[in-house]
Amino acid sequence: MRKIISILEYIVCILIILDNNSAFAKIPSVGKYILPALIIFIVVLIILSIAFKMVDFKKMEKTILALCVFYLFFSIYLMYNVTDEKSYILRFMVCFIFLFVYYSTNKDGKVVKNVLVKYEKIILVISVVSIIFYILASTLKVIDNTGIIQTNWGNKKNIISYYNIYFETQVDYFNNIKITRNSGIFIESPMFAVNLVIALLVEIFVRENHKKYRTIILVITIITTTSLIGILSMLAILLIAFIKNKQVNSIGKFIKIVSFPIVGICVIVVALQLLQNKLDNNTTTGSYSLRMDDYKAQLRAWRDKPIFGNGYINDKAIEQYMNSNRFLSVGMTRTS
């Protein structure tokens, strides 16, 4: 039975990843099934856990109390400020609550840790596949694409597909050299970078049998996304891991103390260089002014309702403050 539960947890992790701004989630004919499927599999997990006595009913009282608090908060927000009610209810008042019930009442004290490790394993597979296609397809052009897919990201966006397991969605410029950003199966490379950073955190700080090759795979993949936030987060994680490493002798401790400020300075220098390069490229390509306009529009929209916000998926609240000369089809930029 534990094998069945484990398989179902893998499926839940896959669906969570797909729902997290993957290219599949933005394909109308596919994306509409991901969230309902996720909810169904979570419910099946809960039912099987109860049926096979894997639920600790002693924890139920605290769980019910927490659920009351969650539902009260979500209900108030729903009544006050939600634009897409169906999506909000499914994600927060159904999916989130069911996941919370499964994790908080499970007898296995390591259930959250085990699921996080499963999540990392899936991201590792996606990383390996993406690196292979990034080198052979996006860089060396040895592999041809297998088609163009239309997504509903922004207004409408066409992306290049390679067997539906790797997508080219963005390009970047370094010293006027055009390169493709590694987006993996995601609609944009920053979304891929977020998942990679989470997987790196799991590998270094959660997983017991830490392996260097897994860290190397994740680090290389994060670099190929050329996501500034992703790379800075990666450097911060590696720096913290370096500081916390206790498996060193007295000489190693001395080296760590001496090298820490040097490594810290190097990280800051690299971060500033990446930021400057990103700003230079954005200014050259014209996207800098678009980003600044977006940031100003988002700040003004937040000022209108600083406590409860402008609502879940309410882009119109921001668009009203955007420069009128811009084409709305460009969409809003995100921190990359």
Uncertain regions: pLDDT < 50 for 5+ in a row?
none
Look at the helices and sheets and give the structural class.
mainly alpha
Count helical runs.
11
Residue-averaged pLDDT: 81
Into which percent range does the helicity of residues fall?
Answer: 55-70%
- State the end-to-end distance: 43 Å
Extended strand count: 5
Outline, from the CA principal axes? globular
Lateral arrangement of strands in the main beta sheet: 1-2-3
What are the secondary-structure elements, in order, as H or E? HHHHHEEEEEHHHHHH
Radius of gyration from the alpha-carbon trace, in angstroms: 22 Å
Largest sheet: 3 strands, antiparallel
Q: β content, as a range?
A: 5-15%
What does this structure look like?
With 336 residues, the chain is mainly alpha-helical. Helices cover 65% and strands 7% of the residues. The protein has helices spanning 2-19, 28-51, 60-80, 85-105, 111-139, 189-206, 212-225, 228-244, 250-285, 287-304, 316-319; strands at 147-151, 157-162, 166-168, 171-174, 177-180. The strands form 2 sheets. It has a 3-stranded antiparallel beta sheet. It has a two-stranded antiparallel sheet with strand order 4-5. Strand 1 (147-151) and strand 2 (157-162) form a beta hairpin. Helix 6 (189-206) runs antiparallel to helix 7 and helix 6 (189-206) packs parallel to helix 8 (228-244).
